[in-house]
Design goal:
Elements (H helix, E strand, L loop, with lengths): L2 E12 L4 E6 L16 H8 L10 E4 L6 E12 L2 E6 L5 E7 L4 E2 L6 E2 L2 E4 L2 E3 L4 E5 L13 E6 L5 E9 L4 E8 L6 E9 L6 E3 L1 E8 L5 E3 L4 E5 L6 E4 L2 E2 L2 E2 L10 E5 L8 E5 L4 E7 L5 E6 L4 H11 L5 E7 L8 E3 L4 E12 L2 H4 L3 H15 L2 H11 L7 E4 L4 H7 L19 H9 L15 H10 L3 H13 L3 H14 L3 H10 L3 H14 L4 H13 L3 H9 L3 H4 L2 H13 L3 H10 L12 H9 L17
Parallel strand pairs: 1-8
Antiparallel strand pairs: 1-4, 2-3, 4-5, 5-6, 6-7, 9-10, 11-17, 12-13, 12-30, 13-14, 14-15, 15-29, 16-28, 17-27, 18-24, 19-20, 19-23, 21-22, 23-26, 24-25, 25-29, 26-27
Helix pairs in contact: 8-9, 9-10, 10-11, 11-12, 12-13, 13-14, 13-16, 14-16, 16-17, 16-18
């Protein structure tokens, strides 16, 4: 029996990696709501707790298109007699593939293409495999960023893969150790989330597991109720699997996109599985801390099918089974200061009697639970959790992540650890290193990438004098929720020297839509070649109902910018608002492809129906998740 770790190369058709933008994400997330149906006081507290005011210090990730060529991506492969697990450290540490070697079966939805789309907190996201999500509701900020990775060894000699990162929004340290013991039928993943701050921090975690979907796949878990939302109604507790008279445990038969968060009773072993007609498929289980389980499906409507093709190409339907710290993905939990939370997950092939799997819900649940206890007894998971505590320090560095943790270590805000060698700060961190060394933040245009944290703010509160330092001070105040103090800093920055960056931030803070549009236009005039700023300016003009100015701005753009999908969409919307529907129909007939169409966005569907009333939305324009 053997267990090995090796580096390799994944060859795949894909786009170039997304790139970070210049403009920080100033807005936060909306507060979540729930119906009165079955939502208890604990969940209501968690729904209201910890919703971020902004997504600072992050910028958007975009710049991708839909033209693909063959790429080579570095990967790390763990293997024993039963399983081959392939990880992509350069893309958020994603588990890209899990193959059951005796049968040759791929247990995950292994995407045939590498195609970013706008589904993550920072925009760029990839479908497929197992994605790890830390921070706040949504696909996490590092989903398309490199993680640090290293070879480690378990006390029994089994090789392991350690991936680790510093998540900057919540300022949490993540460590994941994955290993495949010789002879083991499951892959183990041990997760540790540490809050280095002395104060409580909201925490969120979900492991998002994509698996193949077809009509015969049934999702099973240990629950008789679920919390349901479907992009139309509020979160509510419903019996499961029968919802509105239909069995929702078969996602390939569900008409529209929906979330079903299984309401697993306390004390019940947490697990979820997606089993096919033969009663076989992927199962995920964990130690008790990872309490939540979820089923997500895109639905069988035109919009849902289009989304799956948009993300994975034709004939590649998939669904997601997920596992998280809270009962739903709309909640955050309080992680006390100086505390580390750990849990261990297991992934493998589950096989049960197909007649039982596709029988009554109780029969199916029981059959899968019994098969799981045979595959990986609860005691085995507890032993794996204990074993993970004995993993030593890295023996060989396999991949390098960003330099932000190293910067925080230099600043004294993050303790150094031999278990997590974060390397050295890089070019992006250099302006902040200069602030640490000299007490002065050098002027940068475009500005230095933002930071957050009270130690950085303290340095700037006493020394910010030029436009750049005052702009960064405004961002730090905004991240702390002090909007008026942030406004003062941005206004002071503009008084020292007008910049598109502070003008844009002031536009964000200005509730009057006309004034906000004026500020956005002023920012655009100072940096007309920055596409992301142009798009934001057009959106400000749309909200202010000033279509003529939007069209004038568009007509003055270079041809390459004007051909961008977002600009063409803005042109069509402005033309419609101006009453020129012939122009809208012409643009739609020529084709409007918005490469970063947002999940849940209805702009193209709405536009089509506005100028082609009574005519079905063409599939290429149908991104509806509720009725498409």
């Amino acid at each position: 029996m053997t267990s090995t770790l090796r580096t390799d190369v994944l060859r795949i058709a894909g786009t170039p990696d997304p790139v970070g933008g210049t403009l920080p994400i100033l807005q936060g997330l909306p507060h979540q709501t729930a119906a009165d149906v079955g939502v208890d006081a604990e969940m209501r507290r968690n729904l209201a707790y910890g919703v971020p005011r902004t997504l600072l210090p992050y910028t958007r990730q975009g710049g991708y298109a839909r033209d693909r060529a063959e790429r080579e991506l570095p990967c790390v492969v763990l293997e024993n007699e039963t399983l081959t697990a392939t990880f992509l450290p350069s893309l958020g540490g994603r588990l890209w593939s899990l193959v059951h070697r005796p049968s040759g079966r791929e247990l995950l939805h292994r995407n045939r293409i590498l195609q970013p789309a706008n589904l993550a907190l920072r925009d760029a996201w990839l479908a497929g495999g197992v994605e790890w999500n830390l921070g706040t509701t949504g696909h996490w900020p590092l989903t398309c960023e490199p993680l640090h990775a290293a070879r480690v060894t378990a006390p029994d000699g089994t090789p392991g893969l350690r991936m680790y990162a510093f998540e900057r929004l919540r300022r949490l340290v993540l460590r994941m150790d994955s290993w495949l013991p010789a002879g083991s039928p499951v892959l183990y993943v041990h997760v540790a989330v540490h809050n280095p701050s002395p104060t409580e921090t909201p925490v969120y975690w979900w492991s998002n597991i994509a698996v193949p979907e077809h009509e015969g796949v049934r999702v099973l878990g240990p629950a008789d109720h679920a919390f349901h939302c479907d992009y139309v109604s509020d979160l509510r507790r419903v019996p499961f699997p029968r919802v509105e008279g239909a069995d929702r445990s078969y996602p390939g038969r569900v008409p529209r996109a929906a979330d079903y968060f299984l309401d697993i009773p306390r004390g019940e072993r947490p697990w979820i599985a997606a089993l096919d007609d033969a009663g076989a498929g992927l199962v995920q289980t964990s130690t008790a801390r990872l309490r939540g389980r979820k089923l997500f499906c895109w639905g069988t409507g035109t919009g849902g099918k289009h989304w799956q093709e948009w993300l994975s190409g034709p004939d590649s339907a998939y669904l997601e089974i997920q596992a998280g710290l809270a009962r739903t993905q709309l909640e955050h939990l309080p992680l006390p200061g100086g505390t580390t939370w750990t849990w261990t997950e297991a992934y493998g092939l589950l096989q049960a009697d197909p007649a039982a799997v596709h029988g009554s819900w109780q029969t199916a649940r029981s059959a899968a639970a019994e098969a799981l206890d045979q595959l990986v007894p609860p005691l085995e998971l507890e032993l794996a959790e204990a074993l993970a505590a004995g993993f030593g320090g890295p023996e060989e560095l396999l991949a390098e992540g960003g330099g932000w943790a190293a910067l925080e270590i230099e600043a004294g805000a993050l303790p150094a650890s031999p278990l997590l060698p974060f390397g050295e700060p890089g070019a992006a961190q250099e302006p902040w290193r200069q602030l640490l060394k000299t007490g002065t933040l050098p002027v940068c245009d475009p500005p230095a990438e933002p930071v957050t944290g009270p130690h950085w703010r303290a340095l700037l509160e006493t020394g910010a004098a030029d436009w750049h330092a005052l702009y960064q001070l405004g961002l730090l105040r905004l991240a702390a929720g002090e909007r008026e103090a942030a406004r003062e800093a941005f206004e002071h920055s503009i008084a020292v020297q007008s910049s598109p960056w502070a003008l844009r931030a002031l536009a964000f803070l200005t509730p009057d839509r006309q004034q906000a549009a004026d500020l956005a236009l002023s920012a655009h005039r100072l940096r007309p070649g920055l596409l992301e700023l142009t798009i934001e300016t057009l959106e400000a003009l749309r909200r202010a109902e000033r279509p003529a100015e939007a069209l004038a701005l568009i007509e003055a753009l270079p041809a390459a910018d004007r051909a961008h999908g977002r600009i063409r969409l803005a042109e069509a919307e402005a033309a419609h608002a101006s009453g020129d529907d012939d122009r809208v129909r012409r643009l739609l007939a020529e084709g409007i492809q918005v490469d970063n169409m947002r999940e849940g966005e209805l702009s193209l569907d709405t536009l089509w129906l506005a100028v082609h009333p009574g005519t079905p939305v063409p599939p290429q324009y149908d991104f509806r998740m509720a009725d498409g």
